Amino acid sequence: MNTYTTYYIRRKHPLGLLAALLMIVSLIARVVCHAGAEQAGLMVVVVRVLLPIAANLIFALTLLFRGEQQLYVTRVPVVLFGIVYIDRIVHLTVNLPMTAICVLICILQTAVYAATYRGYFKTKLWALLLWLIPPVLFCLDPRFFTTFRGVFGVSPSIVIADTFFTAGVLLTLLATCRMPEWQEGDPYRLRPGDRLYGRLIRNFDPMSRVGGYLMPYRNGASNAMLDKVEISNMEKYIHQKRREGLKHFGITHVIIAAYVRCVAEFPGVNRFFAGQKVFARFDIVVNMMAKKEMELNAPEALIKVHLSPYDTAEQVYRKYDLALQAIRDESDDGFDNVVKLFNLIPGLLLKFVVWCLTVVDYFGFLPQAIVDISPFHGSLFITSMGSLGIPPIVHHLYNFGDVPVFCAFGAKKTVRELDAEGNMVTRKYLEYTMNTDERTVDGHYYASVLKKFKSYLSHPERLDVPPAVVVDDL
Hints:
The structure is a single chain. The protein is α+β, with helices and mostly antiparallel strands. Helix content is about 50%, strand content about 15%. The chain has helices at about 15-35, 40-65, 75-90, 95-115, 125-140, 140-155, 155-175, 205-215, 230-245, 250-265, 315-330, 335-345, 345-360, 370-375, 445-460, and strands at about 5-10, 175-180, 200, 220-230, 270-275, 275-280, 285-290, 300-305, 380-385, 405-420, 425-435. It is elongated, with a radius of gyration of 28 Å.
């Protein structure tokens, strides 16, 4: 497998932590510098304020939270810094040869750094040397210091900010380690474009790729289906499982297990759409809101269950039961705490905060700690209307996050109907709805999944045996 993840930095490496601190100090220096600056045009604000601040912030967050898996993301802030630095050099009143030399050094720094952490260079020596050139030139050739003396006189905090950014990059280069060469059978390594919890689908057909831009919102790209299944076999299966000691085993576990088995055979159903791209999720994450107590006014809490395509119905039950017990034992869960914190923010400011989270999530920089407690990120959201005694609703998909499938099932329904021989019989049915994001796979694929899903609901005993083969996504 061709992999570009060739370098990493340990999460608590002293030089890495110091580099992150320097980036934060650099960010503060930039904010202080521009806080009292005169009003400027939009392009000036973008290039000289927003881009360098974004560079500092992205670099610091990457070092603190993603250095072990996605160190290559740091090439983004380095490129942003390169744009800012070239703009500053071009606007200095110096001679043309000096300007050309400085611009060339900046371009080489940026290009070699990006190429190194994308895996094109076998050593980080060239990137390190190029980032050492400017400090060396400042020490050895007074013309370079003279070039920037005017900047220092006008705005010393900018020079401090740039110096700290450069020092942070140098410390990062010193702290990074090269990964061993990938061998057949090794776990998948993240590549540029991937997310921490999903792999970018790189061979998506052109029409589907364009469709993501024509239908940018999940709610506008959803297709809903209402179906029902005869549950005589399911009820016998549930009673058998309860006799075997799975005390609370029920319809919810059967539905989740059937979905998990469908993912094992049709992995495309576990894809998600984010940032105008389609990703294959690494594991199966099922979300559900459950009451902590069976009372009318009892608070609800989020259950997030991480499952494997190899899981049987019993394994699904045990993982789900552990997650349910955990939220009932705790007075608050992580999502509750976040919602309470957001509730303290004034309405207008809260709208801005949510917009910021949406932008960050679009580019894949939402902290993993938030993804882990978010009901809007996962493979499947399931809800039971049966406990309320009503038919299933067609629930919308959330535009925020990446959940591609929403399943709702209702109360059991007794029906009097004719059998194949014309005799009147009584049967029980379970109605359910599936709302899906059509941008991840086509209609034929979803049709195959839904037929297989219904087959497993009709014969749940097949879920007791692990799948013989788990199909990998493209």
